[in-house]
Amino acid sequence: MGSKNKLKRFRENETFENVIQPTREEVFENTFDLKGNWGKQFFKNDHPIVLELGCGKGEYTVSLARTYPEKNFLGIDIKGARLWRGAKTALEEGLHNVGFLRTQIELLPYLFAENEVSEIWITFPDPQIKYKRTKHRLTNPEFLEKYEHVLIPGGTVHLKTDSEFMHGYTLGLLQGKGYEIDYAHHDVYGNPHSPKAVTSIQTFYEQQYLETDKKITYLRFRFK
């Protein structure tokens, strides 16, 4: 994407009512008004709040919002030119139960109050296979602590990935820490009992993976 297109999208994001872009001052000086008030001030209802981390173009976030109108969805990504697509689609379709937050995932505890989130989706994250990059792996122990902080008691985390490595790493970590694993499968499309939210929604890249017979794994867990 050219720099002109990126700049155009950045400018449009600033006008979109469904895109929130906190400043560093708001985050670190604890003046971000939506923290603890996402339901009341942003979605204007008391429905459960669901996050998709590293949402990219927001395909999955928007599809979840279409499928589950009784829930609120927030796609989170640091790359504004990407999430622009999902935000624009949601506005065009008049979806009021979906929004986008441009921020770094490690800042979640600064942006959400304790027990404010009901579910978290992590879809096709970079597995960060090299050992030196484990700090960026979205299911490492540090990230899990942040998720536990913002989730309600018994809140659910979903991991959908084409990486057997990421699936296995996360499964091992959860078992070692005694987390409650609700569901784990190495081939969700080969399993007739897979949850609807996992198999009925596919991103563009996921469809490409499936065309090459690449297996998609899924893991659902909660904190005790």
Please describe the structure with a list of short key phrases separated by commas or semicolons:
224 residues, alpha/beta, 39% helix, single chain, 10 helices, Rossmann fold
Produce the secondary structure layout.
Layout: H1 3-15, E1 19-20, H2 24-28, H3 38-43, E2 49-53, H4 59-67, E3 72-77, H5 80-93, E4 98-102, H6 108-111, E5 117-123, H7 141-150, E6 151-161, H8 164-177, E7 180-185, H9 196-199, H10 204-211, E8 217-222
Parallel strand pairs: 1-4, 2-3, 2-5, 3-4, 5-6
Antiparallel strand pairs: 6-8, 7-8
Number of helices: 10
- The run of helices and strands is HEHHEHEHEHEHEHEHHE
Alpha-beta content class: alpha/beta
CATH class value = Alpha Beta
Count of distinct strands: 8
* Overall mean pLDDT: 93
How far apart are the first and last residues' alpha carbons, in Å?
44 Å
Alpha carbon gyration radius = 17 Å
CATH architecture: 3-Layer(aba) Sandwich
What overall form do the CA principal axes indicate?
A: globular
CATH topology: Rossmann fold
Helix content: 25-40%
Let me know the CATH homologous superfamily.
Vaccinia Virus protein VP39
Strand order of the largest sheet: 1-4-3-2-5-6-8-7
Low-confidence stretches: none
Number of domains: 1
Main sheet properties:
8 strands, mixed
Share in β-strands: 15-25%
